Amino acid sequence: MNTFHRALHASLVAAALTLAGVAHAQTAPAELGLSLAATSGCINCHGTAPRGDAPSFLHMQERAAGREGERDALARHWMQEMRATGSGWRAIVAHRQVTDSAAGALFRWLGTPPTKPVN
Asked: What is the signed CA dihedral for 43, 86, 94, 76, rounded to 10 degrees?
């Protein structure tokens, strides 16, 4: 993928996150996180067949379920990881495009027991 296509992809991800946030502002937190994951392309790397060493959403939900009283700390850890992978020579551009608000919705969704398939 050339630089133009990467920039275009990053712009589309940012626009999708913005639109999803506006369109679903009144949606329940778990549903908002699921909607953001689906519309923002997160499932491309974190879906049933994760890309590379990306953790699957199912694995992340299971990890959160095992840390019932520590979900806020886990969400902060995931935010730090996401921000760290958004820069550097192996940057995941999509991580850079996720707003703190959208990331919070994703983490709240991941912290709730699964009621629907992740992907």
From this structure: 50
